[in-house]
Hints:
Chain A is an all-beta fold.
Amino acid sequence: AQSVTQLDSHVSVSEGTPVLLRCNYSSSYSPSLFWYVQHPNKGLQLLLKYTSAATLVKGINGFEAEFKKSETSFHLTKPSAHMSDAAEYFCVVSDGGASKLTFGTGTRLQVTL
Amino acid sequence: DTGVSQDPRHKITKRGQNVTFRCDPISEHNRLYWYRQTLGQGPEFLTYFQNEAQLEKSRLLSDRFSAERPKGSFSTLEIQRTEQGDSAMYLCASSLGDRGNSPLHFGNGTRLTVT
């Protein structure tokens, strides 16, 4: 069985400071991992994905994530937060051959002035 | 590429009524998924199609739920005899390919409120 745990339900940062959203995963196989973002009243948008190539994955809007197998982690980072980054972020795992994605419970990112 | 579209955006219905939602995937995508999202939770998988074949259904999908994708293009999700617990956002997504690492493209969802 596959699962993800997002360690923080809510993260608040000041504009211009770094962002760290934490995610741990559990998977029986070599997983594919994703981060999705959901802005209010908008659909889920793919930020980045890891599929067993480079362990450091760069995504859109300056976000990146590092796959660490030894720690079973896939944390999302951004060097400098922008007000427009305020949204709900979901860490997602797929078992590769599996048909479906398993979502974490989400981390709400708040960005303050 | 016009994205995944869902209709309606919002639906309010009384308990016991039937409702049907429609999803139009990205045109060349062969896979179509339905998810449900309740407040404060991540989306939960309901079912998925590869072309017109429904290949997997979650245990969340009770007998009151049925999904179809008759020609391998658009899909419908019907809920019969709605209950208050069915209130949620219903999300549709599509992808291209036959491997689980193909990213899903989501629509904006249909928000169902059962009164």
